[in-house]
## 1
Amino acid sequence: MKSAISAMDDMDRALVHALQLAPRASWERLGPVLGARPDTLARRWERLTEAGEAWISGIGLRTGGRPPHMAWVEVICAAGTSPAVADTLVDDAHALAVEHSTGGRDLMVFVAVPDLHALYRYLSFRVQRVPGVVSTRSSVVTAVHYAPDRWRLDQLTPAQTDRLTGRTGRTRRPPGGPASPAPLAGASMSEEERPLVLALAADARRSVASLAREFEMSESTVRRRLARLEAGHSLRFSSALASGLSGWPVAATVWAEVPEYEVADCAAAAAGLRETRTCMSVSGRWNFMISARLRTVEDLSRYTADLSRRLPGLRITDSAVSLHVRKSEAQELDHHGRRIRTVPPDIWAEPAPDASGVV
């Protein structure tokens, strides 16, 4: 059983921050930046990952020439059934995130599927048939302006950050933004590359040698394919620290209405706030959605006030606090935000296997 007491220190947090900037950097490269021996860093990382306190996952969702279809699904459950419903949905490859939420929904589920018909099948013949589900409401993601893998801790100094990223003071951005829109075009993932990418979901630092052995490829082939997918934004890495240890334990979501001609400006301004974790355009009742990490629940009102002050064209329409993040980016989490296990995000699998004969 994992202890509720962590031995995490500032060096551990600095290590996680460094791996957010350079997820597959060697210990030899990280050592001089962090002022520690490579073997010491390796032992620290092994301790953190074994305790579920930190991890790096690889997510690759693009096949063909188009990105996947993604949606936020609000789930209303019968009284007392939301834990069981969440247990069921956490097991689904298509549900990349599952949260118990406040407000007019019991659960928030982030779904990724290959196409709109698969989304229809998953919602109609999977989610809506889970015992305890009363109704659902979906918002399809139409643009990702700021992705969750860009959110950073703030443990490293600017000089350390520059050494890892190669940026200079002129191009440096503060942790959390602002940033250019997340790219939606790039190298597609072939059918034969999908198992390789899925193997990185639990541990994106797996060595090229181990991947080559598992998939019976040469190391040069594995290295070349991973480099191509990463450069083309078909494979992204996410380095995470358990929320209860990060200093930012509260997850919140804000919905808003933004004039279409102001979306780009609003996204850039929202990304400039330290707390912002994701920023998306969505369909549905409202067209703008922001998720944030906060230090306390009380900070939500200050955060929304900052948004309103910086974005005169934005009208906040709803907000919610996550009571328990059960799953994030394909990782099942405990109530402290520590990783329990990985659910491989095989979004290309049949989304409703029990709906035989349904087209």
## 2
Amino acid sequence: MARFHVIIPAAGNGSRMGAEAPKQYLNLHGKTLIQHVIKVFDQSTKINTIHVLLNQEDAHWRSTYLHSSSKLQVHYCGGDTRANTVLNGLIAIENQVEADDWILVHDAARPGLSNRLLNHLLSMLENDDVGGLLAMPLADTLKRADSEQRVSATIPRNDLWQAQTPQMFRYATLKKALIAFGGSPTDEAEAIEALGLKPKLVIGELQNLKVTYPQDLAVLSALLSSS
């Protein structure tokens, strides 16, 4: 029977936040963002292992109190890109997993994932032939800008979704997709798509947003306070 393993790439420096520490170590309601992330997977009875992937120069993990978990393993295998980091992580755990085990890749700075949403994703995808990801249908009108930041086109939003994480695929398929991809995919689903497969979209939640800019942290704090 296939098992479930979580990979949390946390090797980035979060430069767009303009903070002293990488964004996964910023505080939200008394815990670091990555603590919130680890906790939700630790609480799930279906999740077997959790793997945090760090940059070799990471100076914050050991000096920050983090939620301990018997499921948790840390790997100092960060790469130049997210895709490289995830691939390095897959290689690091290859002796612990089977080819058809499920891998859930989740952003270290996406702490709003709820237990309910995680369980929904697992139930929707565990018998799927391909796997898939959480995503939100776009509600806003999209504009394409020119070099002078003026509107050059309006893009129809019909059938457009904003990708979230976790993104969930079989170990062997995801590893093959990342190795075969020409360049650096923006997410795991893009690499899977390049194999000719069609990941399933599972509706996510607004609070499952990725903290990228300073205002995101304030928005997320408010959303979690009201939930």
## 3
Amino acid sequence: MTMTAQAQLDAAVLQEGDAATGRLERLFSRLFLGLVYPQIWEDPVVDMAALEISPQDNLVCIASGSCNLLSYLAAGPASVTGVDLSPAHVALGRLKLAAAQALPDHAAFYQFFGRADMEANRALYERYIRDHLDPETRAFWDGRRLLRRRISVFQTGFYRHGLLGRFLGAVHLVARLGQVDFAPLLAARSLAEQQAFFDQKIAPLFDMRLVRLLAGFRASLFGLGIPPAQYDKLAADGGGDVLPVLRERVRKLMCDFPIRENYFAWQAFGRCYDPAPDASLPPYLQAQNFAALRRNAARGRLVNRSLTDLLAAESAGAKQGFVLLDAQDWMNDAQLNALWQEITRTASPGARVIFRTGGAANILPGRVHAKILDRWQYDAEGSARGTEADRSAIYGGFHLYRFQG
């Protein structure tokens, strides 16, 4: 029997813990039924370097906002299958795939998903995209929420919506209370200027009583898609206090990469993409990749189910790349072993697995059975490169495994 979306989320999130944690997990599970990430918060450029995508590769990924799935398609693999437990994320990914094939040119595609705040986007949807959607996805975007059709979010500033968009709005509110204006950061032309902005304007915010109070609540990071189990891992990296970990992640986001080259920083602190002609953008939105994306979009598909369930229906040795995002941080040992058993069964020799962790440490040794994990080689050098290069800066570690067969 097919599980409902809510039942799948409950199975993924609910762990055996105390009553208070259980209540928070149930709340998080229900929030995840809606849109969480209007933009994925993992760097696809880092992913693609680690995956070494070839035309023969069949990839599977957790989709989130689907910036990753569409970016991989632009690299020309044989197929990319995305899964997500949020029906809203699946609807978003299918919308992007249909738009890549149906919109007349890159300018229209960028207007819809890059700007995502123009009244004319409704006409683009009605004229070009709507009739290319499957009935379920069309019903989602034509449906109403708070008296407006869901598709209207692309007229009013899509990246201000969803759980992450509202969380970033709250961050900007706290910044205003601290009299911080992010405009000088977005105009910075050197890493030294960015570091000075952080030291003078942002570091003092972490000493505010309000910020310290809010950071102490495990539900405070739900807007980042961080459930209680992952919050606890972050806090453990800070000696039991999540605040120093958050401070360092914000510092890395602001200071370790030129602001003109980091669209994650623009989304966090400008709440949009840089409007300059040579702006940093996700690979799928870049003009030079649009022809390849349009050509390969039909090789992508999205389904509303867990990755473990999807792989259980795949043939042995059928996959060459697996993208797990940070989902394993949510899992107990039984769930981890069930997932890796299916990954190992469906992996071809040389297949790659990539994932992120909230904390710095690789969480698999000692938890995934040795008889499974010993068939994989951990690429320490590639993992370190990915951790350093990931412009989103929100995770403690990027990890890469290669299948030995």
